Amino acid sequence: MRRLARMGQGRMAGWLAPQAGPAELGLLAQWGAFIALVDDGFDRHGQSPEQVRALLDQLLDVLGGADGTRHPVPAVRALTDLWERTKVSARPGWSRRFQALYRDFAEATCTETRLRACGEQLGLDDYLALRRRTITVLPVLAVVERTLPAASELDGLRNTTADIIAWTNDLRSAPQELDEGTENLVGVLARHHRCSRSEAAARVRVMLAERMDDFDRAAHDDRAAPIRQVRNGSLAWQRETHRNPAGSGMTADDHERGVRALAQHLAVAVDATGTVDDRCGSRVLESTLLLALLREQGIEPGEQDRLTRFLKERRPGASPVDALLIDACLDPAGMADRAPDMAAGLPTAASGGTTGRGRLKAVMLRTVLHVLCGSPLDHRDAPPPTGPEGITTFTDVHLLSTRIIHAHACGRSHAVTDAERDRLVSLMSSGRDRVLWEASATTHLLGLHAVRTFRPDAQVLDDGLLRMCLAINADDGVPFLDSQDLWLTAVAGLAFTGEDTLAPYVPRMADLLASWQAPDGGWPFATGMRQTDVDTTTRCMEFLHAADPIRHREALEKATRYLTGIADPGGGFPTWVRGDAPDLDMTAGAILALAPQAARHERLLVGAVEFVLNAQLSDGTFERSWTVSESSAILRALDALHAIPAATTGLAARIAAATARSVARLVETQNPDGGWGRLPDDPSDVLSTAQAVPVLARHGDPLSVHRAVTYLLDQQDPDGGFTSVPDQVGPRPLPFDYPVLTDIHTLSALRRAVCLPPCSAGRPHPGQAGRRWSRACAVCCSGRSRPPTSRRGCWSTSGSTTSARKRSPTRPMSRTWWNA
Predict the structure, then answer these.
(1) Could you list the active site residues?
(2) 189, 200 in Cβ contact below 8 A?
C-alpha cells in the first residue's frame, strides 16, 4: 500500500487529464494502479517467460470478453472490473483498437522477458523499437482518447510520445537498472558507441531533445492537444514521484573530467520539457513537525517509525537548533519545561539574517517547540490580527497558525475569530496544484497543526497528512520544499548559455519559463504556485534576455512592470511584496535584470546601486539574508555593481572601493587548500568556492583563481558532478539543499575562470605541483583541443577526486506505469 501511494496514481491522472471529472480521474488512476500491479509481478517476483505469457494471455482473454470476476489472480479480477467501466464510455470500434494495442504490448513484454532470461542483448534500433511497445504509453493514451473521434493520422505523434516517455524513464532509472543488469537505453547506447555510461546518458538527453522537436513540428492542430497533455503530464508526474537526483549518477571515465564531464552530468538534469528539477534534501524541522502530527492523530505507525529513525540518525552532530527540535520531538515529556529556556539560550545566529524579523522568528520557534513537546506559550507573544492584504500567502498562513496555536495553548480561544479560522481552512484547501501547499512543507505543516486545534476532523487535515507522507524522502526525512523548478531552471539556463554542450537546451528552457509567468508579471519559484517573488523573477528576466530578448519581449516587459512596481522608494527591492523591508540580494538581482534597459530606468537603478553600496560592511562583506555563504552575497552584489555604467565619477569611485574591499576579504579568507568555507575558518566547500571564483576571476589575481580551480577539480565526483554543503536558507536562517545547485554554480565558476595565464615560463604556481599545464584546457575547453586566445592556457588536473559528502539517498525507481 505504501508503494501504491508513493506512485501517486491520482496525481498522474490529474496531470494526464486536468479537465476531467472525478469519475474519469478515478478510472485513469486505477489504470495506472493496474499496470503497476501487473508490472510488479514481472519485475519484483522474477517471473519466468512462461509465467509472464500465461498472465498476459489471461488478461487478453478478459479484453476478448471472458469473465474474470472470480479469477484467482488479482490482476485478472482488476482488469475485468476496469474493462467494463472503460469501454462503456468509448466510441464505437474503440475496443478493437485497444485490444490490438494491448496485444502488441503483451507480445513485446514476452519478448523482453525471454531476452532477459537468456541474456541476449539487442542492437540500438531493435531496442528502440521494442521499448516503444513495452512502455504502455500507447494503451493508456488510447484510454485518455477513447471518447474522441478516431484519428489514425496522429499515430506518428503517439509513437513519438511513447519514445519520449520511454527514453526519459530509461534515463532516470539507468543507475539502478544497469546495476541490476536490466537492459536500458543508456546501457545500449554505451555498448553501441563504445562509450562510458556518463557519455551515453548525455547522448540520450540529445535524442530526447530531438524527439521533442519532432513532436512540436508535427503537432499542428487542436486534435494533438490531448496527446501533448499526456506527453507533458507524464514527464511532470515522473519528476514528481520518482525522486531521482539531478545528473546521471554514473561514473565518468578517467579522461572525462572538468567541464566536459560536468556538462554531461548537467545535461541529464534537464528533462525533455526543459525543466531543471531536483529533490530537496531532508531537514529536521519538517520531519519533527510531521512526526508530532502523526502521533497526535494516532495514524501511520510505519511512517512514524521512519521519521523517528531519521531523527535519531541526525541527532549526533546536529546543530544546536536541530538538536533542540529532535530532543523536543523524541522526548516530549522530558523537554516540555526545559525547551523555552534552551531556545532562549541558542546562539544569536539562530535568529540572524531575517531582515528585522528576529522577534517573529523567535516566536515561531517557541510555537514549533510547543507542538512538539507541549512547552508553555505566553499569549502576549501571539502576533496581532493581520488582514491578508499586503502580505505573502506564506506569511498569512504562518501568522494565522501562530495566533490559533497560541490561543488554543493559553485557553484563550476567544482571541481568534471564526473568520480567521475559516480563512486558514480556506487557504489550506487551496494551492492543490502541488503535492505540498505552495511547495512548502514548513507552511503546510504549521497550518495543519493549527487546523487540528479547532477542526480535527477536517478533510483538509486528512488530505494534508496524505500529501505530507507522499513527500517523505528516501532517507525517511521530510524536505523543506517539494520543488524549486522554475528558479533552478532560470539559474541553470543562464549558466548553460556559455557552454556548447548545454546551449541547445536553452531555447526550450526559456520557453518553459515564459509559459509559467504569473498574471502579475512575476514568477513563483515552483510550478503550480501562486506567490511570486523578486528573486525568481529577476533570475527569469536575466535568463530570458540572454536566451532571446526579441522572442521573449512581451514577458520581459510584463516582468519589468512587476519589478518597477514593487521597488522601495529608497532604492531597495523586497523579496515578496511591496512594502516589505528591502533586501540586498533582491536589489542586486533587480539591477542585473533591469541592466539591459538601464537608460529607461536610470533613476531607479542609481538608487538601487546606492542601496547595495550602503549595505556593504566595513570588512567587505554583505548581509547574508537568503544564504549562509559570504562569497554568495559578495558575488551577487559585485555582479550588480558592475552591471551598469556608473552615473557619476563619484559613484564609480565608490564602486571601485567596494569591489577592492570585497576582493581583499576573499583573498584573506581563502583556505590553504584553495577553497572557501561559508564563513572564515569554516572548512572549504565546493559551493562557497564556486561563488568566490567568478569574483576573483573578474577582479582579483590569477593565483587565487588557479588555486581555487585546482581545489574544485579535486572535488569532482566520479559521475562528473560536484557535492557540497548547502548555502540557501529558508525559513531564514535554516539551510536547505538542492544538490544540483552546486553543479550549476561550479559550471559558472569554471567558465568564468577561462584561461587564466600561468606564471612566467608557463610553470605551475606554488602549490600546483603534480599538475600539468595544458593549452587544450580541461576546465574551459571541455577537454577539446582548440587554440587558446591571447596565448593563454589553463591548469588541468589528472583525475583525483574526493567527495566531501554523498548526495541524499534516492528512492529506488521500479519499472512501473509507463516503464512497464
Answers:
(1) 535
(2) yes
